[in-house]
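User: Hi! Is it possible to get a structure for several chains at once, not just one? Here's what I have:
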Amino acid sequence: MAESEKGLYYIEGMPVPETSKPGEPPKPWGKTQIVGKAVPRVDAYERVSGSAVYPADVSLPNMLYGAILRCPHPHARVKKVSVEKALHLPGVSAIISSDTPGANPTWTYSSGSVEIQSRLFDPVCRFEGEAVAAVAAETPYRAWDAVRAIAVDYETLPFVADERLALKPDAISIHKGGNRVEPTKIYARGDVAKGFAEADVILEQEYRTECEIHSPIEPHGCVANWDGNRLTIWESTQGVYRVQSNVADILNLPLSMVRVIGHYMGGAFGSKLQAGKYTVIAALLAKRSGGPVKITLSREETFLAVGNRPAANMKLKAGIKKDGTLTALDFECLGTGGAYPAGGTSGVDWLVRDLYLCSNVRTKSTDVYVNAGPARAFRAPGHPQGAWALEQMMDALAEAIRMDPVEVRLKNIPSVSQGRKGQPPYTTTGLKECLKEGAAAFGWQQARKQIAESGKKGTVRRGVGMAGALWAAGGGRPPSTIILKLFSDGSVNLNMGASDIGTGTKTVMALVVAEELGANPDLIQIEHADTGTTQFATPSGGSKTVPTESPAVRAAAIDVKQQLLAIAARDLKVEADSLEFKSGGIVSKTDPSRKIRIAELSGLKQRGVVVGIGYRGPNPENKIANPFAAQFCEVEVDIRTGEVRIIRFLGAHDSGRVMSRLTYDNQVFGGITMGIGLAATEARILDGNQTGKMVNRNWHDYKLPTALDVPADMVSLPIDLGDTEVNTTGAKGLGEPVTIPTAAAVANAVYHATGVRVTTTPINPVKLCRLLAG
Amino acid sequence: MENDPKDKEKNPPKGRGITRRRFLKTVGSGAAVAAASDVLTSLGSVEAAPVKPEEVLRINLLVNGQPHRLMVESRWSLLFVLREKLGLTGTKVGCERGECGACTVLIDAVPRYACMTLAVEAEGSEIVTLEGLMHGEELGPVQQAFAEHDALQCGYCTPGQIMSAEGLLRRNPNPTVDEIRMGMSGNLCRCGAYPHIFKAVGRAARLKK
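Assistant: Yes, the chains can be modeled jointly so their relative placement is included. Here is the combined structure:
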């Protein structure tokens, strides 16, 4: 008896979607059987048992450990690197620096059209933590001994570490041509002067968000190993193909000679989208020492050299009519991507441009260089910063016209993407539903009523706050190629290039296969994130992985079903059109007695495997797929100490179809947690006046939210409008919108509780106490 | 997180291990030692050259019930030895400075940061790592609860979270939500799976009964 007949691989009796004909697009799913269910993630066992091997865990025979000497100054010229003493330490096998022949390739920093060519070990270090030399040794302890034994002669240079001073006439120039990355970018529609003239109320306010560090718990790192000219890299990354192309480009190797593997990775949030200098350094050290080299950055290094969410200095002027109609938004932002072009203001103005209906909008974005570590994409780049300004302004406008903050937003719901050329419509705009259903589930009005009735008594004050959001991406797009192998017993292997960065990508894709085939998701074997064995995928980022990959996975499963129907037609001697795919078997539509189990198909037995290929189809033309959100929270503020306790949070998210309920909720809670960090605990502190150095490069002084800083009472409320246009699974991105409105919602709740508007992050007791004292 | 070395002073470990204070005192007062730590402790008052950080010592470690004889440099952390010498990579490296808790293991049933514990000072103690909670290929109850409630995202802090939960439940089999939050507050989760972690620890308490 075939395995499938025992019900091992297939869920007997489970209805599966109709198999579309070859060349025809599949119909939308409608109600699903398995997709969206609250099932544990498919790789939970590996992750809780310790059997999941993360790049930091990889250990190879004869492996050496690398360490990187980094510039301790924010701006310095490297005059001489003396390595003799370090080279003579026992157990040290290789040292590379700018003096090492063949070990100093070009390193390019770029953002948009701006590009700066530098070197791996550049003679000028423009930020604290820039790489100067590197060592491979038999233990990490010995490698750090050697780093300490290298003598570097630096000529320290004057610096500017505060973007607010970078354009002052006396500021030093970090690159030739001054500190502007590019001319100030201006966006405008309508006429803001006219808009302000129509307004009943005009408010203007400055806001600032501090620089945040990504801080994944697995530090950045890799293991590099050469077999002759073939290089294999185990990298903690969001995208193995991106790392492959970066490394091949920098080391001038064919892509076929660089294999990058990234099965597991311990968090990234945008900071592991590309190869790091450490990746190339590990490869160069391994080439010279003849053994594989593992580099795991120290925690301090990760604070300096592998990205951040840059600070944003914002000014917003807004006009509104008494009926809640927004008449004008005028926004300015000054930001920095650090010492090199890195999108210092990228995305910051987007919510002002796009979130609420408004005919007259102008934004100005100025991106400058400072002597600090380059920024990298950080979960919804620019958006939480922009939300901090816009959503506090909306709160203030609502109060000024005596309207409920939810109501004023409901007055300004867009159906088209106003900020884009041609103002294309969205596939779905769930903003209204997020606001309405979120407010109802949270008990928004009752909470506001109760707080109003209890009055401002006592020293602990309650308040509620909310904020809305959208994410400018999250629709997914081609390319993606998926291979689904069906073995001769009917069980399957899913082969995809995408990384599962903790968001549950593998689980979602297994559920998609299970939905189409009626298969048990736990028994699907998944091969992923390996340029040597899996298909091309863009990095997992931009909340696009599920909407990009899931339609391709669905297409691959349909391809398998179509092939099985053709094989069955030959076995049963009927037309393939007259057959339908059922869970575990194929049955005649007209004569149910004519049926065959998958494992009995002669053509399958002969071939041993059926290979289905799925491609990501194009997005709908002239439409925009964006996720929408509204979050609500309640806080308690001790007005004697300035301590804020967040009591509860609710996230209402329109990210299209819920693909996997447990990982969906987990994303919502995780985004809120990270947003609480922006609101209340996190800020990179540079000693701008004296040394230019980062003074809180560790988790004692740079506070991440802990189990005590987040409420146990968090609610995730999915809003699914049944988006049949966005793609063939109906999913929109989730990972980023979940953190966009959070910090602003907290600030609005603090204002509601205290009457104090905190316009700069973080809202910590030191700051709030001072503001409460007036 | 009970990671204060003083705790250990109040409750000296069983057996013939050396405490951090005694080890440091020994090193500081200059024991002529390149031998097992029981020799080291007995030589506490001998005037001799101090142990160099890279000096190799022979130690015995009891990990997950298995005894190991190892040659270690005196400066090596328990974390380094577990991961890179014994291949027990369930214990993760996050900060190596006692901040994140990814390297949490049980030392004599108390959750401690393996990065802040020298391998030599772990001698004589019972060390349990994530792998030690498994029953063959079967998950232990805390691991089971974490899987059921999706109490993880990237999964990298998870081993440390599970070890802290295990330690918490061994000393308090019926924790309240606030006790769970306090008990788990020494373990950072950047993905922010905290609400699911709280639920999982509650579930683990029930599974353990």
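The CA atoms of residues 70 and 131 of chain A lie 5 Å apart. Chain A has 18 helices and 28 strands.

User: Great, thank you!
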